[in-house]
Structures
1.
Amino acid sequence: MNQTSHTYLAEEKIGKLMLRFSVPCIMSLLVSSLYNIVDQIFIGRGVGYLGNGATNVVFPITIITLALALMIGDACAAYLSLCQGRQDAEGAHKCVGNGITLSVGVSLLLTLFFILAKNPILHAFGATEANLAYAQEYFDVIVLGIPFYMFTSAMNSIIRADGSPQFAMFSTLAGCVLNMILDPIAIFALGWGMQGAALATIIGQIVTAVLSAGYLLRVKTFALHRASFRLSPRLLAKVLPLGISSLLTQLSIVVIMGVMNNVLVKYGAQSPYGPDIPLTVVGIVMKVFQIVIAIVVGIAAGAQPIVGYNYGAGRYGRVKQIYAAIIKAECVVGGIAMLCFEVFPLQIIGIFVSEDGLYNEFAVLAFRVFLSTILLCCLQKATSIFLQSLGKPVQAMGLSLLRDFVLSVPLTLLLPRLFGIVGALYSAPIADVVSVLVAAVMMVGVLRDLTRRENAAAPLPAPQPGGSAAPCPAEG
């Protein structure tokens, strides 16, 4: 490892560093989110809202794949950054090689599992009689791209930690642009419908995977060897816990989507909206929510190499400054998002499909209620990733689980029993309020610990004339 290549992380202005690392990370994650958004827009125009509902049913398998990819990729990226701060060349190349081997192996097993369990999975995530055929068409193709999608998602984090956030952004953007070009051709010109949208997606994923694999030939801060790819259980036991928070954050989305989809179908059937309108609308709301979360996670995850390096190098005061900068940025993003969702919900939903009556009525309600506390969610998500960057997987995991599983799932099941279909929409605001309060309490302790470490590492003041180490405060 080049021992001086990352010293700028401890010297450069924090704002400048965050722009360099977070903006490409945001763009990469946004582009990943846009794969599904673009499909939704073209399917909504070419197939209709039942096609959109079908993509919402299939979407959780993409999240499951992303969860495992981020567990591996984010863990390796965090460990790589800590190794860079400690000047540990051996740990750096081995953690990356192990991560690549693991991501390829897991992706193949996951693909096989999804193929064998297709129909039970679709029914578990809320497929209805009206959209099941569409969901099966989309699933049959999209599942074939899982190995490419998982590899690129894991590599993206590692490439950023290696000091090449711009390349990570470019490789992902190339695949997304290709998907945007192929979607209308496959859906409208060739008339392939749902299968065409899925095919356009996996072609884009393949292109990104090829670019990411090519990057391994010109890495900056470590050198891969044949031994790097040999799985080491001892090393993985140290590395993978750093990605548990990312895994659980994504898996909790899968759980809540599964629970929410089934609740919406059940209680929607008892309401004037029917089962398919709530299922489709909330699916779109969740996709838009994922765009905001991509920005939020991009800010915090993009800063991960900066946090990890400075923490590993003992620059604790600088670590606190980085956290403050992250929180300020998240407040701006969350505030703008909340304003848009409260003021322009109908315009946002109109991007995906043009409907009227009950569809629009429920769409406006869903945006204004479900996403009303998105600012608080932004702060909680950023804090969880910051804790992960410090090598504190237990705290990060606990914070992620609290909001996205411990609170959201029971509230989603309970509130509709009391308030009908509208009750399901209030699960997110309540979970956001409680979880951000817990995050605040947790961070008070973390910041105090950083201050204590900073003071312990600070040099003693020079001795004063007369032999006193420091002047005594005056009395009275």
2.
Amino acid sequence: MTALTRLESQPAHEHAMSTAGSVKHIYQQLLLGDAGEQKRVLAQTFLRAQLQQAAGLPEELPQEPSTWRVWVEQHCAEVARQYADYLQQRKAGGPRQYFSHKAQALFFLQAVAPTKLVDGAWLHGLLPQWRDPRFEGLIGTFLEELGDGNPARNHVAIYRKLLAEQGLQDSGVIADGRYLQGAIQLALGECGDDFLPEVIGYNLGYEQLPLHLLISAYELSELGIDPYYFTLHVTIDNASTGHAQKAVQSVLQLLPLEGDREDFLRRVALGYRLNDLGQGSRVIIESFDLYREVLSMLERKRPFGQHMHSDYCRFEGKTVNQWLSAPEQLPGFLTAMENKGWIKRHQDPQDSRFWQLIEGDGAAMFGVFSPYEKQLLHDWIAGDWTPEHSAPAIRRSNRGAVEAEVPANDPDIHCLQAALQGLAAHEQMAVLIPWLSAHRHSHPAGLMATRRFIELKSSLR
């Protein structure tokens, strides 16, 4: 009986999932929890439930593995053709297809952050197989996700820097369901030994070049947002020499020679379908509603502001504190400010007195709204108005910049060095592997551990 069959036969998985909490809570436990049996059981239980969901999705992977290489190349060629059509439409004067304004782009970047901040995690559980040449492509893919220990190329570090630059560090606004794909990746990484076919099937699906990656990079650049994280994936997820090609090769190398190939391939296909669970990038982008997001943002602010305003300023007979006393009054409050001329929709936001209170030199409400929250308000006020040039609407500081230098007295570096002291080269590998986990690898000690892992892996062959 396979590991998957054993787990599927346990009827208690639904109860276990219900007691584990929200998807976000499971995500955080898998990301931040200490390694141990409890974490492993949680990962298995969660993964088992997701595989049952995936079993009901349409089958897209061709049944014959010998056709996969050509299938991947054809997919990549079709994506290139669709992107060429997109570029032609844009050059002909067509509008952006994903992000109608900057606030929508920032909404997307924040919504997908739980997945991007664990990039590569699904392969972490395969690191103990570093001696087996059949795993070379998968482990190589994982190490490239980690930037080979270079912070300038580490995918998680790059995305964290992007979030910081755009003021998108408030994870409390991310919907629970948007943690699903990240939690799946963490669970796969925790269970790599028991769920090897599912891991390599998921990897095969995840490393295919998607059209949304190309369009997102193009439109983020137009909006003045650094697209490097996305352009980096365009180059490495190619069907010629990149992760997509390595994914196919890895499946073919790990197929059993005498064992149950049919069961193995069934599980590979099931792992592949895990990619389709939850909301994809295009669905997330299309779910954005600017007015609704403005109201949601104001509701989050309302409990902190409903007693902070003086009574001298009134809108339609109510003080600001009275308007903020109940969430259902927020739409009316915005309308009242419009009626009084404090908000001038479809004009330059600089013409609105309300905007002048929150942005600019001497703004009375400076610091009340985050950069993303200000972008929401800016784009809602601007409406149909477009500036004569594309200068950034909201000034940014460099407070979010991520420093690549390692502090001389970094305690994690000292801890890792002490743990490695006196160990033989092959013994060091077991110490290094936990430092390459999703929670650690983008930090200074994790980056150092990645470089040392690569060095030893090469020398111990």
3.
Amino acid sequence: MWREYFIPDSLERTLALLAERQGEARLIAGGTDLVVEFDRKLRSPCALIDISRLPGLDFIRRDDAGWIHLGPLVTHNDVVASDLCIAQALPLAQACRQVGAPQIRNRGTVAGNLVTGSPANDTITALMALDARVTLRSLQGERSIALADFYTGVRRTVMRPDEMLVEIAFRALRPNQRGAFLKLGLRQAQAIAVVNCAVVLTMDAEGRIEDARIALGAVAPVIIRAREAEQRLIGRAPDEATIQQAAELAAQATQPIDDIRGSAAYRRDATAVLVRRALRQATDAPAGAAWSEPPALLRLVRHDGGAAFGADGHDPVSVIRTTVNGREYVIGDADAREKTLLRLLREDCGLIGVKEGCSEGECGACTVILDGRAVMACLTPAPRAHGATIVTIEGVGALGQAPARDDGLHPLQRAFIEAGAVQCGYCTPGFIMSGAALLCEHPRPSDAQIKESISGNLCRCTGYYKIIEAFRRVRDEGERTSA
């Protein structure tokens, strides 16, 4: 897979490594795309430079001029959790919430999504509608580029091998601006877009559209703007006829292909439907209607690890020192450094409760808690465990909400037994880990939060009724205890 694994301690050292390696190294933060490419032999072995713990690069802030700035380590869940983004960059927050599942959103970064450059990536569409810019940095200096000029084709950008994307910036939505993001996938979660769209409208004092931006994804080699549709909206009131005309013009702007997720004709029709709905949502929905309750982020309220990690990055990782379920492990085997975290836990730590179901982040059977966040172990390189704190199904009882019983089980484990939620049992460790993280975050979760928390976990035996019943049992027991 990867030949060497570096964990630099500064941005300067990161840029130096990129310059030294002359295109033979890749940056990794979340790695949710990159690890799959290695596993499928779609990418040749190279050195990896892990920037996921560089200090000060996960910022989300607004400056005095009204620009919102995102650091390169801002994850999708960071955006979802940001009151600033929800209030003043809603299309981006909506897009981030529809990326993968909570475990994916805890690792995957917005910058990584932009650099990957797939025309179906959700955050690119939202940021294109927000008229975003990106800043690239190397040892030679910095340059700022409009996101619209960043892409040269399918998964191709203007970035040089020695450059790193260090900032994303866009203007915050003003009080007279409204926006929306919508996505059509083959299922509600863990789905690549068949079509997605984002709109941003500026309204004048008389309720007419002063400016319009419509961005479309998965319908051309790169994310595109529907310019004729935008022009049709300007100067008009957002009535049904105007919205319908704009939606039809947006569909005409597409250049879709036939693929496994949909035909070109279907994508054109779907584009018109999504744009019409997005325009209605942006003009009709009350402020805040798109964000009814706090999401299930699957992050522990309090956690240890990561922040105080001492790395120098001058030499590749040679020994992995990690803490799993409160026990310290020192793993010096060279083969272990080229594995995923899933294989490291099973093969080198002997923790076989972590299951391999898909090896591409689709099933959630390998869910563990890494530095306080639920993640997919199959998408995480083993060297990321160096200096980290990890909890697996074998140690989940320590996260219990109630005093531990003699059985040492987490309350959700007992509820699974009582409710008959275990079928073959293969997927159960992943469900328990997702649920334990949810219950730490939201001790009295709503049904919607329960369903969102397990949207990245697949049960192939049956439906989810008994699984959800087990979650409800823990919630209801907690409510009775507190009463």
4.
Amino acid sequence: MKIAVLSTNGNLYSTRRLIEAGQARGHEMSVVNHKRCYMNIMSNSPEVHYKGTVLPRPDAIIPRIGASVSFYGTAVVRQFEMMGVYSVNESVAITRSRDKLRASQLLARKGIGLPVTGFANSPDDTDDLLATVGGAPVVIKLLEGTQGVGVVLAETRKAAESVIEAFRGLGANFMVQEFVKEADGADIRCFVVGDKVVASMMRKGKEGEFRSNLHRGGTATLIKITPEERATAVRSAAVMGLNVAGVDLLRSKRGPVVMEVNSSPGLEGIENATGKDVAGLIIEFIEKNARTGRTRTRGKG
């Protein structure tokens, strides 16, 4: 098969591992920088142009779309879908997962455990908004943030009001969530491929840091998850319509709660922590499922 990895940097660990895993299984692999793609949108013969020429049609694509280029990146994925190319994660599923508010509403509609979450537009609603999530301490998140950027722990009511005022002053969209104290700065990353959790790790924030992202100095260790955690991760990915996803869970008093469903989860941390060939499992999934014109997004909304 001809498989293209949509990535802006071929030297990134995740991109390299996918290329290596595909080549090891006999596939023709390539890296396509989606920011350098441009599109000829025609009804009968849509095309993707790349570096001054028409890009030969691959059999499948693996989108590795960064949050900062979600709009253009998903437009490129849609163009490939119009051409009948199989995408391991479809454009609408990526878009769903990138909008934290929309994702939370979709997960809540399916009864999946979430931290108590509030969202408001008017400054007049701040008092009730904080009361809705149980008061300080609270976690305030930019809807467009990723890798822990734009996530603030406000330990007091005054601090929460100040952060909310600052975000509103910038015209930023944000949501307010309860702080799950019992998680103790740790979360669980479940890596879902298809309808299975193929690997899982516990991420722990560095001393004094409530965010557990590895990019922010967190550490990762192998962990055995419970059947409830496994089912929650698989259901969450399915609600988003994602075939490959990193589902981040917290262990709360009322069971697992979902913090985020990531459509482009990194491979370095999970492979190093678990010793599993996750890249190879993604390629294996494509082998079993890629068909021309086989683009059907699961879930609704």
